[in-house]
Design a protein that fits this description.
The protein is of the alpha/beta class and about 210 residues long. It is about 30% helix and about 30% strand. Strands 1, 4, 5, 6, 7, 8, 10 and 12 form an 8-stranded mixed sheet that branches. Strand 6 (about 100-105) and strand 7 form a beta hairpin. Bound molecules: 1-O-pyrophosphono-5-O-phosphono-alpha-D-ribofuranose and uracil. The site of uracil (URA) has 9 residues, from helix 6.
């Protein structure tokens, strides 16, 4: 295993992931579960944010209390499926900026085709967390990180829900500085480059287009 990979083993995440995988879960419940898992994973992915102290007054006395040290964040969901993770992470960090990268995998080559990119203009001052529920071949993740790195962000993390061993190997070998947060590393890819056992097509399940 690569030392840049962090599997969020928290029981709440693992419990919710089971219902997310279940093919009988409705789109409405799937969206809710993606939001909840993303919120819990964001808690882990931001564990290293540095703290500083500020002077406040409680109703009892004055004290020095901890606050996050002026760190600026940006979330970059990979369209479409990454959009499903936005609500959860923004509920924890509402001041973050949000960029968008639109990618669609080619059905035969499985390589991503880019159709949209809009990033915050001050992204060079920000720590970036890329959001995409599925890390399969890793083509989309590598393309997204390549694109963001051209704008010199302070750092990049990649947050997904399910990763394949192949996707982790490709993203880690291309961008060893990018920490990968996931809820599961599954067995393998199938002949259509879907993750096994996985959860199917994340975008279709979020948006009800299957
Ligand atoms: C899915 C998923 C990732 C990509 C992962 O998106 O959300 O972006 O596939 O596959 P990879 O690691 O092999 O590149 P898809 O291209 O199906 O688009 P969608 O989100 O619009 O459904
Ligand atoms: N994209 C998905 O949505 N699911 C997979 O299993 C692989 C790529």
């Amino acid at each position: 295993m690569f030392d840049n990979v962090f599997v969020v083993e928290h029981p709440l995440v693992q419990h919710k992931l089971t219902y997310l995988r279940d093919k009988n879960t409705s789109s409405a419940n799937f969206r809710r579960l993606v939001t909840e898992i993303s919120t819990l994973m964001c808690y882990e992915a931001t564990r290293d944010l540095p703290l500083t102290e500020t002077e406040i007054e409680t109703p009892i006395t004055s004290m020095k209390a901890k606050i996050i040290a002026g760190r600026k964040l940006a979330f970059v969901p990979v369209l479409r499926a990454g959009l499903g993770m936005c609500e959860g992470v923004l509920s924890l960090i509402p001041a973050a900026k949000v960029g968008h990268i639109g990618l669609q995998r080619d059905h035969e080559t499985f390589e991503p085709m880019s159709y949209y990119c809009k990033l915050p203009p001050d992204i060079s001052e920000r720590d970036v967390i890329v959001l995409d529920p599925m890390l399969a071949t890793g083509g989309s993740a590598v393309f997204a990180v390549d694109t963001i790195k051209k704008h010199n962000p302070k750092s990049i993390k990649f947050m997904c829900i399910i990763a394949s061993p192949e996707g982790i190997a490709r993203l880690s070998s291309t961008h060893s500085d990018v920490k990968i947060f996931c809820a599961s590393v599954d067995e393998r890819l199938n002949e259509k480059a879907y993750i096994v056992p996985g959860l199917g097509d994340a975008g279709d399940r979020i948006f009800g287009t299957d």
